[in-house]
Amino acid sequence: TQLLEQSPQFLSIQEGENLTVYCNSSSVFSSLQWYRQEPGEGPVLLVTVVTGGEVKKLKRLTFQFGDARKDSSLHITAAQPGDTGLYLCATALRAGNNRKLIWGLGTSLAVNP
Amino acid sequence: DAGVIQSPRHEVTEMGQEVTLRCKPISGHNSLFWYRQTMMRGLELLIYFNNNVPIDDSGMPEDRFSAKMPNASFSTLKIQPSEPRDSAVYFCASSFTGVEQYFGPGTRLTVT
Q: Which of A34, A104, B13, B89 could disulfide-link A4, Cβ–Cβ 3.0 to 4.6 Å?
């Protein structure tokens, strides 16, 4: 059972379209991170959201953290081929005095020119 | 500043052979993580170190896997003996906060 459920699993769209991907859980999180992984590379951190209801924008990407801090969404406006990649969400679970990240399985996005 | 460095980028080996993967974290980061990524299971945390000390190795599949961090600038992940089911991409990541992580380019391991 995945602690973080990401949907959709796969998404193929045309350049210029808008899209939204989701990261959901039944647990409450103190923070949530979004990463993008391009083919053949490691994940790259895009944003961290902390406050319930928070909205952060990164150029054409809009990240939202749910009011109850159980879910998050990523909206891309006017998608471009350079947005192609695997979008991963992750959250930190406290383990004693340390924390470790738990990851979703990701949404694989293909933007066709 | 250089990011996380991993070597080799690709490794092809035969079943039963020993495999050693290497990682140099970002200077100043005090946490280091080893992950394995497959299509079926996604990104799995194998082990992580804080200040060179192993904190959680519950993700290490079995005794065939071992990891060391002899100093703040170097870590290894060793598989002995390797098996075909170990084929995956192995990532090393480092962090200053423990939460926001910076990944290396990965090592693609193929065990035949």
A: A104
Cβ distance A103 to B93 less than 8 Å, yes or no, reads no
pLDDT beyond 90 at A77: yes
In this complex, the residue of B91, B99, B102 whose CB is nearest that of residue A99 is: B99
| Contact yes or no for A98 and B56 at CB 8 A | yes
Give the residue from chain B lying closest to A93, CA to CA: B99
**Strand segments (E) across chain A:** 5-7, 10-14, 19-24, 32-37, 44-49, 55-58, 61-65, 71-76, 85-95, 98-103, 107-112
Q: Whole-angstrom Cα distance, residue B73 to residue B30?
A: 9
Of A88, A101, A106, nearest to B99 by CB-CB distance is A101
A45 to B99: CB separation less than 8 angstroms, yes or no = no
Query: CA A106 to CA A8: how far, in whole Å?
Result: 8
pLDDT of residue A1: 58
What would the pLDDT profile of A27-44 be if each residue is shown by its tens digit? Answer: 888 889 999 999 889 999
